[in-house]
Amino acid sequence: MNNYISTRNVHLYYGENEALKGIDLNFPDNGIHALIGPSGCGKSTYLRCLNRMNDLIPNVKITGNIEIGGSNIYSPKTDTVELRRQVGMVFQQPNPFPFSIYDNVSYGLKLSGKKDKELIDERVETSLKQAAVWDEVKDDLGKSALSLSGGQQQRVCIARVLAVQPSVILLDEPTSALDPVSSDLIEEMLLTLREDYTCIIVTHNLQQASRISDTTSFFLTGDLIETGRTKDIFVEPKKQQTDDYLSGRFG
Amino acid sequence: MNPKTINKFALNTIKVIAGLVVIILAFLIGRILIQGVPHISWHFLTSPSQEFVSGGGISYQLFNSFYLLVLTLLISFPISLGAGIFLSEYAPKNWLTEILRMSIEILSSLPSVVVGLFGFLLFVVQFKLGFSIIAGAIALTFFNLPLLTSNVEQALNSVSDLQREAGMALGLSKWRTVIKVIIPEALPGIVTGIVLGAGRVFGEAAALIYTAGQSASTIDFTNWNPFNAASPLNWSRPAETLAVHIWKINSEGIMPDAAAVSAGTSAVLIIVVLIFNLSARYLGNKLYRKFTAAGK
């Protein structure tokens, strides 16, 4: 398996506070990869290193090496705009733009200079279908995305990411603010995406991790404790801390 | 006393205080309207004022007030939008930004008569603009700028950071995120602030007495060439506004119907400001609904 994303010795500091203490972690091309751990363990922080969203926070210092598709994303030559097009992100709270559904999904495409109306229409439709929300919104694409339910909004946000055809999709607890039905829809959808995208999902829902992910990595207080195939991690974890967390003894 | 009685007592005290405020305001507005509205007529609104005989109107003052307002907004809105965007989105958190913010606060509490005198010395005298609409508009900009800037900043700050992250995560540059995502979402708040500020500017007198002047030069409403001295659009003519008119009549008016003209002008002023305030609410709500609710 070749490693599409490889991170070596990643340290992250919020001012004096060391939030990531040297993470070595690799992800192969495609598949779903779960990051689990108790709150404050650094899994979201780590996820946000992969598309440089942490750059937005003042006083953050990151050291180490993060390569995606063979290029160092923290090199001064990196175009963060291009990087974030390549590495899409879905957030915990659905955050559609205050436009119509159509404009939300087509926005990234138009930004990258696509003008062909037919191509955009087609891409909007495919993305909404992939995100399992097409049937609910197809008659109302002109409607404001903010008028949709939370679950629908989240799927429109996923469609918005898919429309620009990234190679990696980062998901930061994408279902924790949603109802169970919407969560199920999103899980099913992720399973269809795993063939073509590298999905990295932060989740507090251990069942969710065990249901959908191919690999699981367990974080604790800024350290990566254990990583491996999801089946192995859940059935026979090698570290005591992993076992304790998975069996609910803390966290 | 038991907690229940104390609670009741506190609630009633607050109710009385709130009622007092409402009564004072209602009395004030009611009195101005009752005294002034009977004097408002089509003739009053459309004929020029008279200095020595009765029967004068306020057509020039009314036009001047609106024209001055438009000019002021044209100057102050772009500046405050830029400053507000900088403060909310780009300004680093350091002492320089704090000083900037503090200066804006100080500027907003500057007495308007001081702003007027400053405008008089700098623009009217030093820059030789004379008593003119443009000098008045610049003085009013100084008066309006701080509040409008804080308003824009607050409106932008109230947009959730999730939207900023959404924009960045989709590969939008920061500037584009601000222009295309943050500003549209903050628009209802910004518009409300502009209209409320317009109400303040419209009723301002002290800052204008020394800048736009106290005389309403004759305007020819058929001449719309802004470079002609008699044109309504000419910005270098002195221009008395409604508020200044009220002040002047009451301090040195010698027309026989001075009291009536003053009352009528006050009523017109109050009505326009009320319209501004109500439309600010209406516009704000409408824009908010447009961005959030169903419908195309």
UniProtKB/TrEMBL annotation, chain A:
InterPro entries: AAA+_ATPase (IPR003593), ABC_transporter-like_ATP-bd (IPR003439), ABC_transporter-like_CS (IPR017871), P-loop_NTPase (IPR027417), PstB-like (IPR005670). The lineage of its organism: Bacteria, Bacillati, Bacillota, Bacilli, Lactobacillales. Residues 5-246 form the ABC transporter domain. This is Phosphate ABC transporter ATP-binding protein. GO terms for molecular function: ATP binding. It comes from Ligilactobacillus acidipiscis DSM 15836. Keywords: ATP-binding, Nucleotide-binding, Phosphate transport, Transport. Pfam families: ABC_tran (PF00005). The keyword Cytoplasm does not apply.
UniProtKB/TrEMBL annotation, chain B:
Keywords: Cell membrane, Membrane, Transmembrane, Transmembrane helix, Transport. One of its GO terms (cellular component) is plasma membrane. It is found in: Cell membrane. It comes from the Bacteria. It is a multi-pass membrane protein. CDD domains: TM_PBP2 (cd06261). Residues 62-280 form the ABC transmembrane type-1 domain. It holds the Pfam family BPD_transp_1. GO terms for biological process: phosphate ion transmembrane transport. The chain crosses the membrane at residues 12-34, 66-87, 99-123, 129-148, 258-280. One of its GO terms (molecular function) is phosphate transmembrane transporter activity. Signal peptide: none annotated. PROSITE patterns: ABC_TM1. SUPFAM superfamilies: MetI-like. InterPro entries: MetI-like, MetI-like_sf, Phosphate_PstA. Belongs to the binding-protein-dependent transport system permease family. CysTW subfamily. NCBIfam families: 3a0107s02c (TIGR00974). This is Phosphate transport system permease protein PstA. It comes from Ligilactobacillus acidipiscis.
